[in-house]
Design goal:
Elements: H1 10-76, H2 87-158
Helix pairs in contact: 1-2
């Protein structure tokens, strides 16, 4: 005796399909968001920060030239018996030197970090590529397979069961090799 398919709930398959689709969308959105953020950090590290610290070096270089000129002017005010107070000018010059050294250290640090970041980024992208492929290609294939299954099951459920000679649903279709059904009188 052939067994009938026992379809318990096509709705459960529909809910599973919806959950798979939601997972795929969520995974793609998360990976896309991370990629956008990583590009932003890369641009910041490779372009914005070097430009900023180079401009700081230039700015403090100009201020140091101004501080030297101010110190030189103040020293020119020396006369016999008068020594001008150059404490502020020397402090301004020291501050400028300190700011230039700080900006140069920051720039050197960025130059060291850029290759390390690029290496980490390439490693991340290599490791997440299979997840990204699964979230787009494999999920699409799975959804198509589930659609086919749901369609086939719905078609199966919508067919009427075979009837026997009395018009009642039959578990098995009549065997055509056994000849016509016998009738009792």
């Amino acid at each position: 005796m052939a067994e009938q398919a026992r379809v318990q709930s096509i709705e459960a398959l529909n809910r599973f399909r919806a959950a798979v689709a939601e997972f795929g969308d969520g995974a793609r959105n998360a990976l896309g968001g991370i990629d956008i953020e990583l590009r932003r950090v890369r641009d910041w590290l490779e372009h914005e920060q070097p430009r900023y610290w180079k401009s700081q070096i230039k700015l403090w270089d100009q201020r140091m030239a101004e501080a030297r000129a101010a110190l030189h002017r103040k020293n020119l005010q020396r006369t016999d018996g008068f020594v001008p107070d150059v404490t502020q000018e020397k402090e301004a010059l020291r501050l400028c030197k300190m700011r230039i050294e700080q900006a140069e250290r920051k720039l050197a640090s960025i130059r060291r970090w850029v290759p390390q970041f690029q290496h980490a980024l390439a490693e991340y992208q290599g490791r997440t590529r299979s997840l990204a492929d699964a979230a787009s290609i494999d999920i699409a294939r799975m959804l198509a397979m589930l659609d086919r299954m749901i369609t086939a099951l719905e078609a199966y459920v919508s067919t009427a069961p075979p009837r026997d000679h009395s018009g009642m649903p039959s578990a098995l279709p009549p065997d055509p090799s056994s000849g016509p059904p016998e009738t009792t009188s």
